[in-house]
Design brief:
Residues 1-27, 95-122 are annotated as: Disordered. By secondary structure, the chain is mainly alpha-helical. The protein has helices at 2-10, 24-31, 38-68, 75-84, 86-98, 106-109, 114-120. It has a domain at 24-71.
Length: 122
């Protein structure tokens, strides 16, 4: 059985007989589908980038929801979470500062310091 498997591997075949990529170039081609039209390639790249960003943001949101759904959340737990997730919090504040608030919104009228806002939001 082992000889059969090794023979399949050497022939670049899967155990089911499907062709497997054997070189780095073949492997890359199997993952990256390209089109001859450069504008379509650019759009495909943009879609892949957006999907990757979405997946990352969904993970960040799940981490925040996990914290907020904890019925035993204390100030101490929050501070520990905040230390562990410093990059996430910095990213949130950078996005918040980059996005202008609509006129007359509460955020525009009262802008607390970032650390005061985080501490008082829990």
């Amino acid at each position: 059985m082992e000889k059969l498997y090794k023979s399949l591997e050497q022939a670049s075949l899967s155990p089911l007989g499907d062709r497997r990529p054997s070189t780095k170039k073949e492997l890359r081609k199997s993952f990256v589908k390209r089109c001859k039209n450069p504008s379509i390639n650019e759009k495909l790249h943009k879609i892949r980038t957006l999907n990757s960003t979405l997946k990352c943001k969904e993970h960040d949101l799940a981490m925040i929801n996990q914290l907020l759904d904890d019925p035993k959340l204390t100030a101490r737990k929050y501070r520990e979470w905040k230390v562990v997730n410093t990059l996430l919090i910095q990213d949130i504040y950078q996005q918040q500062q980059a996005t202008p608030a609509p006129e007359g919104s509460p955020q525009e009228l009262k802008k607390p310091s970032s650390s005061a806002y985080v501490e008082s939001s829990i």
